[in-house]
Amino acid sequence: MTAAAGARVGAVVRAVCMAACTDAAASGIVITYAETPEGRLLADWLADAGAGFRIWREQGSACTVVEERRSGGALVAHPASKTQLLLSARLPLVDLLPLGDVWASQVTALAGSWTGPEAVRRLAEAAGGIDVLDRAMQQMVEERQPAAVALAGLPADVAPELLALYEAGRHSRLRPRLTPKLTARTLGIDLFD
Amino acid sequence: MEAPTGVDRPALRLGIAQLAPRLRDVPANAAAITAAAAADVDILLTPELSLTGYDVGDAVHHLATPVVTGSLLRPRTGRLPDDEPDVPDVAADAAGDVVIGLVEAAPGGPFNTGCVLRQGRVVFRHRKLYLPTYGMFDEGRWFGRGDSLDTWTTPSGWHCGLLICEDFWHPGLAYVLATRGIDLLLVQAAAPGRGVWQGGEEDAFASADVWRRIARTTAQLYGIHVALCNRSGVEGGVMFAGGSLVAGPDGSILAASDTGTGLLEVELTAGEQGRARQPYAHARDDDARLVVRELQRCLP
Fold first, then answer.
1. Cβ B234–A19 below 8 Å, yes or no?
2. Backbone angles phi, psi at B116, to 5 degrees
3. The whole model's pTM is what?
Protein backbone atom coordinates (compact mmCIF):
# COMPACT_ATOMS: atom_id res chain seq x y z
CA MET A 1 0.00 0.00 0.00
CA THR A 2 1.50 3.29 -1.05
CA ALA A 3 0.69 6.85 -0.11
CA ALA A 4 -0.09 7.41 -3.78
CA ALA A 5 -2.75 4.70 -3.71
CA GLY A 6 -4.25 6.28 -0.60
CA ALA A 7 -4.32 9.65 -2.32
CA ARG A 8 -6.07 8.18 -5.38
CA VAL A 9 -8.65 6.41 -3.26
CA GLY A 10 -9.13 9.51 -1.13
CA ALA A 11 -9.77 11.55 -4.27
CA VAL A 12 -12.55 9.18 -5.36
CA VAL A 13 -14.13 9.17 -1.89
CA ARG A 14 -13.98 12.96 -1.78
CA ALA A 15 -15.49 13.32 -5.27
CA VAL A 16 -18.38 11.00 -4.45
CA CYS A 17 -19.09 12.74 -1.13
CA MET A 18 -19.00 16.17 -2.73
CA ALA A 19 -21.31 15.03 -5.54
CA ALA A 20 -23.72 13.63 -2.97
CA CYS A 21 -23.76 16.98 -1.17
CA THR A 22 -24.40 18.78 -4.45
CA ASP A 23 -27.21 16.41 -5.40
CA ALA A 24 -28.81 16.76 -1.96
CA ALA A 25 -28.15 20.51 -1.74
CA ALA A 26 -26.51 19.64 1.58
CA SER A 27 -24.49 22.08 3.62
CA GLY A 28 -21.78 19.53 4.37
CA ILE A 29 -21.06 16.18 5.98
CA VAL A 30 -21.19 15.05 9.58
CA ILE A 31 -18.54 12.42 10.27
CA THR A 32 -19.69 10.19 13.10
CA TYR A 33 -17.11 8.22 15.09
CA ALA A 34 -14.57 10.83 14.04
CA GLU A 35 -12.28 9.77 16.86
CA THR A 36 -11.60 6.36 15.27
CA PRO A 37 -8.78 5.66 12.76
CA GLU A 38 -11.45 5.35 10.09
CA GLY A 39 -13.00 8.66 11.10
CA ARG A 40 -9.64 10.42 11.03
CA LEU A 41 -8.80 8.94 7.65
CA LEU A 42 -12.12 10.12 6.23
CA ALA A 43 -11.64 13.58 7.69
CA ASP A 44 -8.21 13.75 6.06
CA TRP A 45 -9.64 12.75 2.70
CA LEU A 46 -12.42 15.31 2.92
CA ALA A 47 -10.16 18.07 4.18
CA ASP A 48 -9.27 19.18 0.64
CA ALA A 49 -12.85 19.45 -0.48
CA GLY A 50 -12.58 23.20 -0.69
CA ALA A 51 -14.56 26.21 0.37
CA GLY A 52 -18.27 25.83 0.83
CA PHE A 53 -18.00 22.19 1.84
CA ARG A 54 -18.34 21.89 5.63
CA ILE A 55 -17.22 19.00 7.77
CA TRP A 56 -18.40 18.35 11.31
CA ARG A 57 -16.58 15.74 13.38
CA GLU A 58 -18.61 14.05 16.07
CA GLN A 59 -17.47 11.53 18.62
CA GLY A 60 -19.58 8.40 18.37
CA SER A 61 -22.99 9.00 16.90
CA ALA A 62 -24.63 11.16 19.55
CA CYS A 63 -28.14 11.24 18.18
CA THR A 64 -29.16 14.71 19.22
CA VAL A 65 -26.11 16.35 17.72
CA VAL A 66 -26.25 14.36 14.51
CA GLU A 67 -29.97 14.92 14.09
CA GLU A 68 -29.49 18.63 14.66
CA ARG A 69 -26.91 18.71 11.88
CA ARG A 70 -29.10 16.59 9.64
CA SER A 71 -32.08 18.86 10.11
CA GLY A 72 -29.77 21.74 9.24
CA GLY A 73 -29.21 20.18 5.82
CA ALA A 74 -26.08 18.10 6.37
CA LEU A 75 -25.51 14.53 5.25
CA VAL A 76 -24.41 12.04 7.85
CA ALA A 77 -21.50 9.68 7.22
CA HIS A 78 -20.38 6.62 9.16
CA PRO A 79 -16.72 5.72 8.54
CA ALA A 80 -17.18 1.95 8.90
CA SER A 81 -14.85 -0.17 6.79
CA LYS A 82 -16.02 -2.81 4.34
CA THR A 83 -14.91 -5.53 6.75
CA GLN A 84 -17.05 -4.07 9.49
CA LEU A 85 -20.07 -3.58 7.25
CA LEU A 86 -19.97 -7.09 5.81
CA LEU A 87 -19.71 -8.67 9.25
CA SER A 88 -22.34 -6.57 11.01
CA ALA A 89 -25.97 -7.51 11.33
CA ARG A 90 -27.19 -4.07 10.34
CA LEU A 91 -25.77 -1.30 8.21
CA PRO A 92 -25.65 2.06 10.01
CA LEU A 93 -28.68 4.24 9.30
CA VAL A 94 -26.79 7.11 7.72
CA ASP A 95 -26.63 8.82 4.34
CA LEU A 96 -23.10 7.88 3.38
CA LEU A 97 -20.70 5.00 3.96
CA PRO A 98 -17.61 6.65 2.47
CA LEU A 99 -15.23 3.87 3.57
CA GLY A 100 -17.67 1.10 2.77
CA ASP A 101 -15.43 -0.19 -0.01
CA VAL A 102 -12.19 0.10 1.98
CA TRP A 103 -11.17 -3.06 3.83
CA ALA A 104 -10.03 -2.80 7.45
CA SER A 105 -6.56 -4.01 6.43
CA GLN A 106 -6.37 -1.10 3.97
CA VAL A 107 -7.46 1.29 6.72
CA THR A 108 -4.64 -0.12 8.85
CA ALA A 109 -2.12 0.39 6.06
CA LEU A 110 -3.20 4.00 5.62
CA ALA A 111 -4.12 5.01 9.18
CA GLY A 112 -2.04 2.69 11.35
CA SER A 113 -4.90 0.77 12.94
CA TRP A 114 -8.54 -0.12 12.58
CA THR A 115 -11.61 -0.44 14.77
CA GLY A 116 -14.72 -2.54 14.62
CA PRO A 117 -17.23 -4.35 16.79
CA GLU A 118 -15.87 -6.75 19.36
CA ALA A 119 -17.10 -9.78 17.41
CA VAL A 120 -15.18 -8.71 14.32
CA ARG A 121 -12.03 -7.95 16.28
CA ARG A 122 -12.15 -11.36 17.93
CA LEU A 123 -12.68 -12.99 14.57
CA ALA A 124 -9.71 -11.16 13.06
CA GLU A 125 -7.50 -12.21 15.95
CA ALA A 126 -8.61 -15.83 15.66
CA ALA A 127 -7.99 -15.73 11.91
CA GLY A 128 -4.37 -14.69 12.42
CA GLY A 129 -4.80 -10.95 11.88
CA ILE A 130 -6.94 -8.55 9.89
CA ASP A 131 -4.85 -9.07 6.73
CA VAL A 132 -5.61 -12.80 6.76
CA LEU A 133 -9.29 -12.26 7.46
CA ASP A 134 -9.67 -9.62 4.75
CA ARG A 135 -7.81 -11.69 2.16
CA ALA A 136 -10.18 -14.59 2.72
CA MET A 137 -13.20 -12.29 2.48
CA GLN A 138 -11.86 -10.63 -0.66
CA GLN A 139 -11.60 -14.04 -2.29
CA MET A 140 -15.17 -14.82 -1.32
CA VAL A 141 -16.79 -11.45 -2.04
CA GLU A 142 -14.77 -9.84 -4.80
CA GLU A 143 -13.25 -12.81 -6.59
CA ARG A 144 -16.48 -14.80 -6.15
CA GLN A 145 -14.79 -17.98 -5.07
CA PRO A 146 -16.97 -20.50 -3.23
CA ALA A 147 -16.83 -19.92 0.52
CA ALA A 148 -15.32 -23.37 1.04
CA VAL A 149 -12.40 -22.41 -1.21
CA ALA A 150 -12.03 -18.78 -0.11
CA LEU A 151 -12.05 -19.58 3.60
CA ALA A 152 -10.08 -22.83 3.43
CA GLY A 153 -6.93 -21.20 4.79
CA LEU A 154 -8.61 -19.94 7.96
CA PRO A 155 -8.58 -21.87 11.25
CA ALA A 156 -11.38 -24.41 11.36
CA ASP A 157 -13.51 -22.56 13.90
CA VAL A 158 -13.18 -19.16 12.18
CA ALA A 159 -14.88 -19.92 8.86
CA PRO A 160 -18.27 -20.91 10.33
CA GLU A 161 -18.25 -17.84 12.59
CA LEU A 162 -17.38 -15.59 9.65
CA LEU A 163 -20.17 -17.06 7.53
CA ALA A 164 -22.65 -16.67 10.39
CA LEU A 165 -21.79 -12.99 10.77
CA TYR A 166 -21.90 -12.48 6.99
CA GLU A 167 -25.27 -14.20 6.75
CA ALA A 168 -26.72 -12.16 9.61
CA GLY A 169 -26.26 -8.92 7.67
CA ARG A 170 -27.66 -10.14 4.36
CA HIS A 171 -31.09 -8.59 4.90
CA SER A 172 -29.65 -5.22 5.90
CA ARG A 173 -27.36 -5.16 2.88
CA LEU A 174 -30.38 -5.21 0.60
CA ARG A 175 -30.83 -1.55 1.47
CA PRO A 176 -27.33 -0.16 1.34
CA ARG A 177 -26.27 3.47 1.62
CA LEU A 178 -24.23 5.47 -0.83
CA THR A 179 -20.78 3.95 -1.02
CA PRO A 180 -17.94 5.13 -3.29
CA LYS A 181 -16.97 2.33 -5.67
CA LEU A 182 -13.35 1.31 -5.17
CA THR A 183 -13.26 -2.46 -5.64
CA ALA A 184 -14.72 -5.13 -7.87
CA ARG A 185 -17.89 -5.54 -5.80
CA THR A 186 -19.37 -2.62 -3.91
CA LEU A 187 -22.31 -2.35 -1.51
CA GLY A 188 -25.31 -0.86 -3.27
CA ILE A 189 -23.74 -1.11 -6.73
CA ASP A 190 -22.78 -4.65 -7.60
CA LEU A 191 -22.48 -6.59 -4.35
CA PHE A 192 -25.75 -8.45 -4.19
CA ASP A 193 -25.12 -11.02 -1.43
CA MET B 1 -9.55 -3.10 -47.12
CA GLU B 2 -9.40 0.18 -49.01
CA ALA B 3 -6.10 1.83 -49.70
CA PRO B 4 -5.39 5.08 -47.90
CA THR B 5 -7.73 7.76 -49.13
CA GLY B 6 -6.45 10.96 -50.65
CA VAL B 7 -3.63 12.54 -48.71
CA ASP B 8 -4.72 15.92 -50.05
CA ARG B 9 -7.67 15.88 -47.70
CA PRO B 10 -7.48 18.98 -45.53
CA ALA B 11 -6.41 18.60 -41.94
CA LEU B 12 -9.22 17.93 -39.51
CA ARG B 13 -9.54 19.91 -36.30
CA LEU B 14 -10.90 17.54 -33.70
CA GLY B 15 -12.31 18.60 -30.34
CA ILE B 16 -13.02 16.22 -27.50
CA ALA B 17 -15.31 17.65 -24.83
CA GLN B 18 -14.76 15.62 -21.69
CA LEU B 19 -17.98 16.61 -19.97
CA ALA B 20 -19.56 15.55 -16.68
CA PRO B 21 -23.23 15.25 -17.62
CA ARG B 22 -25.75 15.71 -14.85
CA LEU B 23 -28.01 12.71 -14.47
CA ARG B 24 -31.41 13.27 -16.12
CA ASP B 25 -30.83 17.03 -16.39
CA VAL B 26 -31.27 17.45 -20.14
CA PRO B 27 -31.48 21.27 -20.25
CA ALA B 28 -28.21 21.62 -18.31
CA ASN B 29 -26.46 18.98 -20.43
CA ALA B 30 -27.75 20.47 -23.68
CA ALA B 31 -26.39 23.83 -22.61
CA ALA B 32 -23.01 22.29 -21.76
CA ILE B 33 -22.83 20.57 -25.17
CA THR B 34 -23.81 23.75 -26.99
CA ALA B 35 -21.19 25.72 -25.06
CA ALA B 36 -18.50 23.18 -25.92
CA ALA B 37 -19.63 23.24 -29.56
CA ALA B 38 -18.54 26.85 -29.80
CA ALA B 39 -15.01 25.52 -30.23
CA ASP B 40 -13.61 26.13 -33.70
CA VAL B 41 -13.31 22.49 -34.73
CA ASP B 42 -14.51 20.27 -37.58
CA ILE B 43 -15.74 17.54 -35.25
CA LEU B 44 -16.63 17.88 -31.60
CA LEU B 45 -16.93 14.56 -29.78
CA THR B 46 -18.88 14.32 -26.50
CA PRO B 47 -19.28 11.29 -24.20
CA GLU B 48 -21.82 8.49 -24.25
CA LEU B 49 -25.27 9.70 -23.16
CA SER B 50 -23.93 13.24 -22.87
CA LEU B 51 -27.45 14.65 -23.12
CA THR B 52 -28.98 12.61 -20.30
CA GLY B 53 -26.27 11.27 -18.00
CA TYR B 54 -25.52 7.57 -17.79
CA ASP B 55 -27.55 5.72 -15.18
CA VAL B 56 -30.95 6.93 -16.41
CA GLY B 57 -32.78 3.84 -15.15
CA ASP B 58 -36.51 3.69 -15.75
CA ALA B 59 -36.55 7.36 -16.79
CA VAL B 60 -35.18 6.06 -20.08
CA HIS B 61 -38.68 6.07 -21.59
CA HIS B 62 -39.41 9.66 -20.58
CA LEU B 63 -36.04 10.86 -21.86
CA ALA B 64 -36.22 9.08 -25.22
CA THR B 65 -35.96 11.57 -28.08
CA PRO B 66 -36.84 10.93 -31.74
CA VAL B 67 -33.81 11.09 -34.03
CA VAL B 68 -34.83 12.01 -37.57
CA THR B 69 -32.21 12.49 -40.25
CA GLY B 70 -32.22 16.07 -41.52
CA SER B 71 -34.24 17.39 -38.59
CA LEU B 72 -33.38 19.41 -35.53
CA LEU B 73 -33.41 17.49 -32.27
CA ARG B 74 -36.29 18.09 -29.91
CA PRO B 75 -34.83 16.66 -26.72
CA ARG B 76 -37.24 15.23 -24.18
CA THR B 77 -36.49 16.23 -20.65
CA GLY B 78 -38.42 13.63 -18.71
CA ARG B 79 -41.05 16.11 -17.59
CA LEU B 80 -44.77 15.77 -18.31
CA PRO B 81 -45.71 17.18 -21.75
CA ASP B 82 -47.40 20.28 -20.32
CA ASP B 83 -44.38 20.94 -18.14
CA GLU B 84 -41.74 20.27 -20.79
CA PRO B 85 -39.25 23.15 -20.81
CA ASP B 86 -38.23 24.57 -24.15
CA VAL B 87 -34.69 23.29 -24.70
CA PRO B 88 -32.83 25.44 -27.24
CA ASP B 89 -31.58 23.65 -30.35
CA VAL B 90 -28.49 21.67 -29.45
CA ALA B 91 -25.27 22.89 -31.04
CA ALA B 92 -27.20 24.65 -33.83
CA ASP B 93 -24.46 27.25 -34.32
CA ALA B 94 -21.53 24.83 -34.26
CA ALA B 95 -18.98 25.21 -37.02
CA GLY B 96 -18.49 21.47 -37.47
CA ASP B 97 -20.13 18.15 -36.79
CA VAL B 98 -21.07 17.58 -33.15
CA VAL B 99 -21.32 14.04 -31.84
CA ILE B 100 -23.65 13.75 -28.87
CA GLY B 101 -25.01 10.83 -26.88
CA LEU B 102 -28.71 10.46 -26.13
CA VAL B 103 -31.57 8.11 -25.50
CA GLU B 104 -33.28 7.54 -28.85
CA ALA B 105 -36.99 6.85 -29.13
CA ALA B 106 -37.70 4.29 -31.84
CA PRO B 107 -39.44 0.95 -32.26
CA GLY B 108 -37.42 -1.76 -30.56
CA GLY B 109 -35.83 0.85 -28.30
CA PRO B 110 -35.21 3.09 -26.57
CA PHE B 111 -31.65 2.97 -27.83
CA ASN B 112 -28.35 4.22 -26.43
CA THR B 113 -27.45 6.27 -29.48
CA GLY B 114 -24.59 8.39 -30.71
CA CYS B 115 -25.89 11.12 -32.96
CA VAL B 116 -24.02 13.46 -35.30
CA LEU B 117 -25.48 16.96 -35.62
CA ARG B 118 -24.52 19.40 -38.36
CA GLN B 119 -25.77 22.89 -37.57
CA GLY B 120 -28.14 21.20 -35.16
CA ARG B 121 -29.59 18.77 -37.69
CA VAL B 122 -29.16 15.02 -37.55
CA VAL B 123 -26.83 13.65 -40.24
CA PHE B 124 -25.88 10.27 -38.73
CA ARG B 125 -26.63 7.99 -35.83
CA HIS B 126 -25.18 4.83 -34.34
CA ARG B 127 -27.17 2.67 -31.96
CA LYS B 128 -25.01 0.93 -29.38
CA LEU B 129 -24.59 -2.70 -30.35
CA TYR B 130 -23.20 -4.27 -27.20
CA LEU B 131 -25.06 -3.34 -24.03
CA PRO B 132 -23.12 -4.32 -20.91
CA THR B 133 -25.41 -6.15 -18.52
CA TYR B 134 -23.22 -7.57 -15.81
CA GLY B 135 -21.79 -6.47 -12.48
CA MET B 136 -22.59 -2.81 -12.07
CA PHE B 137 -24.05 -2.43 -15.58
CA ASP B 138 -27.71 -2.84 -16.41
CA GLU B 139 -28.01 -1.49 -19.96
CA GLY B 140 -29.75 -4.57 -21.35
CA ARG B 141 -32.61 -3.85 -18.96
CA TRP B 142 -33.20 -0.34 -20.24
CA PHE B 143 -32.07 -0.22 -23.86
CA GLY B 144 -32.75 -2.03 -27.09
CA ARG B 145 -29.73 -3.24 -29.02
CA GLY B 146 -28.66 -1.73 -32.32
CA ASP B 147 -28.22 -4.06 -35.26
CA SER B 148 -26.12 -2.30 -37.86
CA LEU B 149 -22.88 -0.43 -38.37
CA ASP B 150 -22.45 2.49 -40.71
CA THR B 151 -20.17 5.44 -41.47
CA TRP B 152 -20.45 9.08 -42.43
CA THR B 153 -18.22 11.62 -44.14
CA THR B 154 -17.49 15.14 -42.97
CA PRO B 155 -17.81 18.06 -45.39
CA SER B 156 -14.01 18.08 -45.69
CA GLY B 157 -13.93 14.44 -46.74
CA TRP B 158 -12.96 12.59 -43.57
CA HIS B 159 -14.64 9.21 -43.50
CA CYS B 160 -15.69 8.41 -39.92
CA GLY B 161 -17.07 5.59 -37.83
CA LEU B 162 -18.63 5.74 -34.39
CA LEU B 163 -18.70 3.19 -31.58
CA ILE B 164 -20.09 3.48 -28.06
CA CYS B 165 -18.12 2.25 -25.06
CA GLU B 166 -18.57 -1.55 -24.85
CA ASP B 167 -18.71 -1.69 -28.67
CA PHE B 168 -15.02 -0.82 -28.65
CA TRP B 169 -14.24 -3.99 -26.67
CA HIS B 170 -15.53 -6.05 -29.58
CA PRO B 171 -12.69 -5.74 -32.10
CA GLY B 172 -14.78 -7.13 -34.94
CA LEU B 173 -16.65 -3.82 -35.07
CA ALA B 174 -13.50 -1.75 -35.54
CA TYR B 175 -12.43 -4.27 -38.17
CA VAL B 176 -15.68 -3.81 -40.09
CA LEU B 177 -15.36 -0.02 -39.97
CA ALA B 178 -11.73 -0.16 -41.05
CA THR B 179 -12.72 -2.43 -43.92
CA ARG B 180 -15.21 0.25 -44.92
CA GLY B 181 -12.23 2.57 -45.22
CA ILE B 182 -12.71 4.97 -42.33
CA ASP B 183 -10.02 7.53 -41.58
CA LEU B 184 -11.17 8.29 -38.06
CA LEU B 185 -12.81 6.10 -35.45
CA LEU B 186 -14.70 8.01 -32.77
CA VAL B 187 -15.57 6.30 -29.50
CA GLN B 188 -17.99 7.68 -26.93
CA ALA B 189 -17.75 6.22 -23.43
CA ALA B 190 -19.14 6.44 -19.92
CA ALA B 191 -16.54 4.18 -18.37
CA PRO B 192 -16.27 4.08 -14.59
CA GLY B 193 -12.83 4.27 -13.07
CA ARG B 194 -11.69 0.83 -11.99
CA GLY B 195 -8.61 -0.35 -10.20
CA VAL B 196 -8.04 2.78 -8.16
CA TRP B 197 -5.98 0.89 -5.58
CA GLN B 198 -3.58 -0.35 -8.26
CA GLY B 199 -3.61 2.89 -10.25
CA GLY B 200 -2.75 3.20 -13.91
CA GLU B 201 0.54 3.84 -15.64
CA GLU B 202 -0.40 7.45 -16.30
CA ASP B 203 -3.82 7.83 -14.71
CA ALA B 204 -5.56 7.37 -11.40
CA PHE B 205 -7.31 4.23 -12.59
CA ALA B 206 -5.89 0.96 -13.89
CA SER B 207 -8.83 0.75 -16.28
CA ALA B 208 -7.50 3.79 -18.15
CA ASP B 209 -4.51 1.69 -19.23
CA VAL B 210 -6.78 -0.81 -20.92
CA TRP B 211 -8.66 1.86 -22.87
CA ARG B 212 -5.37 3.39 -23.95
CA ARG B 213 -4.03 0.04 -25.10
CA ILE B 214 -7.14 -0.76 -27.13
CA ALA B 215 -7.13 2.69 -28.75
CA ARG B 216 -3.44 2.59 -29.63
CA THR B 217 -3.59 -0.95 -30.96
CA THR B 218 -6.68 -0.27 -33.07
CA ALA B 219 -5.14 2.89 -34.48
CA GLN B 220 -1.88 1.18 -35.40
CA LEU B 221 -3.40 -1.99 -36.82
CA TYR B 222 -5.59 -0.09 -39.25
CA GLY B 223 -3.50 3.04 -39.74
CA ILE B 224 -6.34 5.30 -38.67
CA HIS B 225 -6.85 7.97 -36.05
CA VAL B 226 -8.82 6.88 -32.99
CA ALA B 227 -10.48 9.40 -30.69
CA LEU B 228 -11.94 8.34 -27.36
CA CYS B 229 -14.16 10.64 -25.32
CA ASN B 230 -14.88 9.26 -21.86
CA ARG B 231 -17.01 11.20 -19.45
CA SER B 232 -15.95 12.72 -16.19
CA GLY B 233 -17.84 13.30 -12.93
CA VAL B 234 -19.79 11.18 -10.47
CA GLU B 235 -23.14 9.40 -10.45
CA GLY B 236 -24.10 7.86 -7.10
CA GLY B 237 -21.06 5.99 -5.82
CA VAL B 238 -19.42 5.72 -9.22
CA MET B 239 -16.68 8.05 -10.44
CA PHE B 240 -16.11 8.13 -14.19
CA ALA B 241 -12.51 7.94 -15.28
CA GLY B 242 -12.21 10.58 -17.99
CA GLY B 243 -8.88 9.96 -19.68
CA SER B 244 -10.09 10.93 -23.14
CA LEU B 245 -7.43 10.65 -25.80
CA VAL B 246 -6.48 10.72 -29.44
CA ALA B 247 -4.27 7.98 -30.88
CA GLY B 248 -2.44 8.61 -34.11
CA PRO B 249 -2.27 6.06 -36.94
CA ASP B 250 1.20 5.00 -35.77
CA GLY B 251 -0.22 4.11 -32.36
CA SER B 252 1.17 7.14 -30.57
CA ILE B 253 -0.90 9.20 -28.17
CA LEU B 254 -1.39 12.65 -29.70
CA ALA B 255 -3.30 14.12 -26.76
CA ALA B 256 -4.84 12.93 -23.52
CA SER B 257 -6.92 14.25 -20.64
CA ASP B 258 -6.83 13.53 -16.93
CA THR B 259 -9.96 12.72 -14.93
CA GLY B 260 -11.47 16.22 -14.88
CA THR B 261 -13.64 18.06 -17.36
CA GLY B 262 -12.09 19.96 -20.24
CA LEU B 263 -11.64 20.30 -23.97
CA LEU B 264 -8.89 18.61 -26.00
CA GLU B 265 -8.16 20.07 -29.42
CA VAL B 266 -6.00 18.22 -31.91
CA GLU B 267 -5.27 18.67 -35.60
CA LEU B 268 -5.26 15.44 -37.59
CA THR B 269 -3.76 15.10 -41.03
CA ALA B 270 -4.14 12.59 -43.81
CA GLY B 271 -0.39 12.70 -44.21
CA GLU B 272 0.02 11.08 -40.79
CA GLN B 273 -2.06 8.17 -42.01
CA GLY B 274 -0.09 7.83 -45.21
CA ARG B 275 3.22 7.84 -43.36
CA ALA B 276 2.01 5.35 -40.74
CA ARG B 277 0.72 2.92 -43.34
CA GLN B 278 3.65 3.16 -45.73
CA PRO B 279 6.16 0.87 -43.98
CA TYR B 280 3.62 -1.93 -43.78
CA ALA B 281 1.17 -3.64 -46.07
CA HIS B 282 -1.44 -4.67 -43.50
CA ALA B 283 -4.21 -2.55 -44.92
CA ARG B 284 -3.40 -3.47 -48.53
CA ASP B 285 -3.13 -7.19 -47.84
CA ASP B 286 -6.12 -7.59 -45.56
CA ASP B 287 -8.51 -10.19 -46.93
CA ALA B 288 -12.02 -9.60 -45.64
CA ARG B 289 -13.39 -12.43 -47.77
CA LEU B 290 -11.07 -14.87 -46.03
CA VAL B 291 -12.26 -13.57 -42.66
CA VAL B 292 -15.92 -13.90 -43.66
CA ARG B 293 -15.34 -17.44 -44.98
CA GLU B 294 -13.64 -18.53 -41.78
CA LEU B 295 -16.20 -16.80 -39.56
CA GLN B 296 -18.96 -18.65 -41.33
CA ARG B 297 -17.23 -21.90 -40.43
CA CYS B 298 -17.31 -20.80 -36.76
CA LEU B 299 -21.05 -20.19 -36.81
CA PRO B 300 -23.54 -22.98 -36.15
1. yes
2. -100, 125
3. 0.93
